[in-house]
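Work package 3, deliverable 3.1, input record:
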Amino acid sequence: MPDETHVAIASATDIVTARQKGRALAIEMGFESVEATLIAAAISEVSRNIVEYANRGEIILRASRNGARHGLCVVARDEGPGIPDVAQALQYGYSTRRGFGVGLPGAKLLMDEFDIISKVGKGTTITMRKWLD
Amino acid sequence: MRVPILKQYDYLVASIQSVLSDEDLLLLRDDLTERVGQYRSKGVIIDVTVLDLVDSFATRTLRAIAHMLKLRGAETVIVGIQPEVAFAMVQLGLTLEGVGTALDLEEGLAYLKQPLKGNLRHAR
């Protein structure tokens, strides 16, 4: 197993690839199937965000460790327009486009940790983790 | 991959065969809206048994399909949502409000065959 898996995101097809790789890694790490599905769902939402707002970016998947805890870390990175108001973007039901406004807040709900750094004109990096119990 | 659509008497059955990209889902929407007119179908079953995930885009598209087909005079029922898929949808707060759902193909057909269901829906 490589330390990191990078999935380039530039189209809707890549969203499927990213979430399938995420699910496979989760299962390999010992996550229950249900949890792997939640991780895949979170990856799907953050990847779609890249496609819709930044056009391209990447998803990085890796095992994560915090003391005795093991988990899976997903980084979604793009160099797109950035998010002017992160708090608003994380508000459930808020969308600047045609969406439900479920994407980012939804991903946050599905994971144990969710961190977002965004600079207007520079891009957005989302780091999220799910821990194995 | 294009979703095959079978005609069964008054109904259409769209059996999703593999994981779908966003484009595939939009293609399914366009195909169904056209076929419903072509075959004068009264009902449409969309079988999503093979889907390992129904995310916000898929939910939004399935809802749009059902609403569009309703405007074309056909009832839609989504069948085969797997337990884990349902769990993830609930966690994400996604609903298929206003869209018929049934356990599997057989239940889906039974759902569509309920007499007057369409009319009752409209009356509400």
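The first helix of chain A runs from residue 12 to 29.
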